[in-house]
Amino acid sequence: MTEGAKAGTQEGTAAGPLLVASSTNGGVRVLTVSGEIDHQSGGTLREALGACTTDHPRVVADFHRVSFMDFSGINILIGAHRALTEAGNWLRLAALSAPVLRTVQIVGLDSVLDCHTTLDQALAG
Predict the structure, then answer these.
(1) For residue 61, what are the CA distances in angstroms to 1, 80, 119?
(2) Are 53 and 19 in contact (CB under 8 A)?
(3) Which of 23, 33, 36, 115 is the most buried (most CB within 10 A)?
(4) Under a CB-based contact definition with an 8 Å cutoff, are residues 22 and 7 in contact?
(5) d(C-alpha 68, C-alpha 14), whole Å
(6) Alpha-carbon Rg of the chain, whole angstroms?
(7) CA 75, 28, 8 angle in degrees (round to 5)?
(8) Would you give the distance in Å from CA 113 to the centre of its chain?
(9) Which residue in 32, 31, 37 sits closest to 18, CA to CA?
(10) Per-residue pLDDT tens for 90-100?
(11) Rounded to an integer, what distance in angstroms lies between the CA atom of residue 7 and that of residue 94?
């Protein structure tokens, strides 16, 4: 039930492009993110989340296929969280891999954003 996918290239890495597939589940926009999020690929995630701030009040970013995220990814998530919250909406993260969860915990983003172990938990709230 994927509505669309966007890809950004990561020059100089073996991981390939960052992919973001978008679908809807029970009125919630689900972004399934795959690859590595860094300063080169982050624009793809920023664009996908930005589109959600205008047309979907509830967003879950499913990170089960994300193997790495640096601080540029954290900044993208904070920006999207702020934009959605200011509009009375929300952003939740689901299924963070161990390395990505560690980055989220180091900066304390898990105290700002709802982080759930599974996509189903994030959808249930």
Answers:
(1) 16, 11, 9
(2) no
(3) 33
(4) no
(5) 13
(6) 13
(7) 45
(8) 11
(9) 37
(10) 999 999 999 99
(11) 20
What pTM does this model have? 0.85
pLDDT digits (tens, 9 = 90+) for 74-118: 999 999 999 999 989 999 999 999 999 999 999 999 999 999 999
By C-alpha distance, which of 77, 73, 82 is closest to 60?
A: 77
For residue 1 the two structure tokens come to: 């039930």
DSSP-assigned letters across all residues of 15-64: S--EEEEEEEETTEEEEEEEEEESTTTHHHHHHHHHHHHHH-SEEEEEEE
Cα end-to-end span (Å), the chain: 21
Which residue has 């890809």 as its token pair? 7
Helix, strand counts (H, E) of the chain: 4, 6
